[in-house]
Amino acid sequence: MDEYWKELEGKRVHDPLTQKHGDPVPRIWVQGPLIVGAGPSGLATAACLKQKGIQTLILERAQCIASLWQFKTYHRLRLHLPKQFCELPLMPFPSHFPTYPTNQQFLAYLRGYANYFELNPVFNSTVTRAEWDERCGFWRVKAVGEGKLVKETVVEYFCKWLIVATGENAEQIVPQIEGLEEFEGPVIHTSSYKTGGAFGGKKVLVIGCGNSGVEVCLDLCDFNASPHLVARNSVHILPHEMLGRSTFGLSMSLLRWLPLRLVDQILLILSRFILGDTARLGLSRPKLGPLQLKNLSGKTPVLDVGTFAKIKTGKIKVCPGVTRLSRRAAEFVDGSVENFDAVILATGYKSNVPSWLKESNMFSEKDGMPRKEISNGWKGECGLYAVGFTKRGLLGVSMDARRISEDIELVWKADESQIQIHH
Fold it and tell me: What phi and psi, each to the nearest 5 degrees, are found at residue 192?
């Protein structure tokens, strides 16, 4: 390792770019794991490792923790699952929080979590490249830092363990729709949507019928807008609660005693009794049951918090897929055309891992998700890990964080002679 370091330093001294620009790129040896991302996934993993006596370095591109929750959520958002299924490891939610905490309450919980475990991410630090260096046996992670008073700085980190915690929701998905750029009204992604106040009295096309799409439609109704929900594909809509319990909690209880397919049948029978036939209103159900579909594809059923009642009364209209947009109108797959004042893209998010992680064994270059089955996608080769990519929400994050910390602890204890941090 010492020989490798000397060779690296020699190359850097004679590098014409270094000579031209003056200051060489600082290289920092990280004693413990390096975590990319300071959202719930990164914080949970850092806390689990800290409890085992293992310090981490967290790099975060934004200027705060949980930037998605801070800047890209709408005001009415609440956690869709009861709080006991959303807490991070080692610290429950405050007892006075409601069953379904608000976005602001969840953020307060995350801030308290980071403070309690004394987690201090390096903010405004964007990882632009990470790759395994076979010669030295470490990950080389290049990060660009920015600050209000400081010019752009580049730092290269070396670490034995690299934990990818940038999540499934790193970048918003903007679909390729013919005529989207021609549309003259406002076009925004739900990541920019806060409230329906600006859409009062307007006819709004909401493209995408996941949980965000249906909830944005409900919010638009509260501000006297006329939302039209595009349901291009089949979707499972389930009541938020059944038999006086959360649908998710009821499902978990039933799965302890019954096979998954039977639980799916029970959920669909109860949903039909509570909501009626959703297909009659343009929302056909997939052939696979909601839990089976979730396990196989990661596609989450929509938990209805009042939207379906508005669909029944006609205040929210369901539309088929969009073929193209024009200056003020949308044409649908059934040939119909309607005018609209605004378009909201509830088209979700995607991973950005392939843009910076130069590795193709663990992560797919196509969608930036782990290639292995969902349950085994947390561990790669050469000390590479992923947290928050299981498509199981915050519950999956906690499971990943615990697994990763236990796995690293085994190596940590077996090899106490760790690298010292050098500047």
Answer: -105, -5
Q: End-to-end distance of the chain based on CA atoms, in angstroms?
A: 16
Q: Which domains does the chain have, with CATH numbers?
A: 2-170+351-414 (3.50.50.60), 173-345 (3.50.50.60)
Question: How does pLDDT run across 277-290, given as a tens digit for each residue?
Answer: 999 999 999 999 99
Give pLDDT tens digits for 12-31.
544 444 434 455 789 999 99
**Sign, Cα dihedral of 45, 50, 54, 55:** positive
Based on its alpha-carbon atoms, the radius of gyration of the chain, rounded to whole angstroms, reads: 24
Q: Are strands 27-29 and 153-159 parallel, antiparallel or unpaired?
A: parallel
Task: Provide the token pair at 214.
Answer: 């249906």
Q: Are 54 and 33 in contact (CB under 8 A)?
A: yes
DSSP H helical ranges for 367-415: 393-414
Angle at CA of residue 387, ends 34 and 292, nearest 5°: 170
Asked whether 396 and 86 are in contact (CB, 8 A), the reply is no
Task: Pull the structure tokens for residue 350.
Answer: 């995607």
Alpha-carbon distance 27 to 42, whole Å? 23
Find out whether 65 and 77 touch, Cβ atoms under 8 Å.
Answer: no
Please provide the average confidence, as pLDDT, over all residues in the chain. Answer: 90
- Residue 341, judged by CB atoms within 10 A of its CB (0-12, 13-18, 19+), counts as middle
Comparing CA positions, the residue from 112, 88, 84 lying closest to residue 98 is 84
pTM recorded for the entire structure: 0.90
Tokens of 8: 């690296």
Residue type at 177 in one-letter notation: I
Beta-carbon contacts of residue 43 (< 8 Å; ≥ 6 apart): 58, 65, 66, 88, 110, 113, 114, 117, 119
What's the rounded Cα separation, in Å, for the pair 350 and 347?
A: 10
Instruction: Using the predicted structure, report yes or no on whether residue 399 has a pLDDT greater than 70.
Output: yes
Task: Return d(Cα 419, Cα 30) in angstroms, integer.
Answer: 7
